[in-house]
Fold this protein.
Amino acid sequence: MSHPSPKITLPDYPAELQADPRDLPYDKAQLTRFYVAMKLARTFEEKLGALYRQGKVNGAVYLGMGQEATSVGSVSALKDGDFFTTVARNLSAFFYKGIEPRDVMARWMGKDIPPSNGRELGLFLADIKNFGIPPYHNGSMASWIPSGAGYALAFKLRKQPNVMAAFTGDGATSPGDFYEGLNFAAIHKLPLVIICEVNQFAYSTSIAKQMPVVNVADRAPAFNIYAETHFGNDLFLVIEAAQRGIEHARSGKGPALIEFKTFRQRGHGEHDDMAYVPEELRDFWAERDPIKMYREWLLKRASFTTSELESTETQVEADVESAITYAESLPMPKPESVTERLFAPSPHDPDPNQAAPYEPIDHPSIPGLTAAQDKSEGGHF
Ligand SMILES: Cc1ncc(C[n+]2csc(CCOP(=O)(O)OP(=O)(O)O)c2C)c(N)n1
Ligand SMILES: [Mg+2]
């Protein structure tokens, strides 16, 4: 089936990073950390897509290729004790924070490791204690905005100087949860930061077909909140904008909505061939690939050498290969354990050592209908 390309207007984004290294507070180790997180996610996802096609990954696979700068730049602006929630396309944020590739790979393969023991997709990672990632939602689009507002409310009530950063897609700014959550956060001036990754599509629906405004930030006046819009493939622009939004929220002035224009380089999931995405749009964003741009900047402006970057890339590939070997070596969960650990224990759970609270009723006081009383004609409604 052919898909006629709609007429599109391409934005005027440069194909190279603009920052002057002399103005930046980052040493070589930090610049390398940004690169490793982005490159590791890209390499991992390329392999993950291949494993999916080989039938080695359970369920659907969703990738964040093309959005690495928005993820890494935004989480790099968080401080100790801040929380963040991600959706499907923020693997590079996990790697920046130090989550091990082998643990992520084992989850994608449904292996029997904690904390979920094969019970959820690799992308739904949660680890508050080590990484500040709370278990955020049930997969329903934008539900993480009201639950994010809840975490932000907890910070405020505890007088804790932290923020809750919620990554969200462009499509997720249309459902009702987005409005209710942001409205509540705005009224109570909660430290909630929405990092909106506008990757041009929600499934196969383009932005123009699901938003009556051009920018997500154009929705902000409805909540009277702070908002900015930027090109999201320039790592340093992302970092600066995220820092402003995060510090705004931290200072008690209420939520911030930081919008980054970027591109989903793959389909919604790996089952989607993205045939509906015009060639012109793909080419435009391929030239502005965030990792390609950052790599060129490191070489041209930050005095990294090709051999330094190549050895980093070799190491990244080796790390992904060992993650796969490790994940493949792990056992699958035992089938008989399928009903275990579905719910966390509650203080209201009945005590299994006590007698049942109600005895079974052997002689109910309401008698059954006699044949003459029964008008049901044998049927049931
Ligand atoms: C309430 C609800 N409706 C529909 C879906 C199915 N769904 C999952 S992701 C998605 C599109 C998300 O688009 P966007 O927010 O732009 O994020 P992206 O996938 O582009 O990162 C849809 C419609 C859902 N999860 N929840
Ligand atoms: Mg989207």
About this structure: Residues 169-171, 199, 201-202 surround magnesium ion (ligand 2) (CB under 6 Å). Residues 28-53 form the longest helix (26 residues).
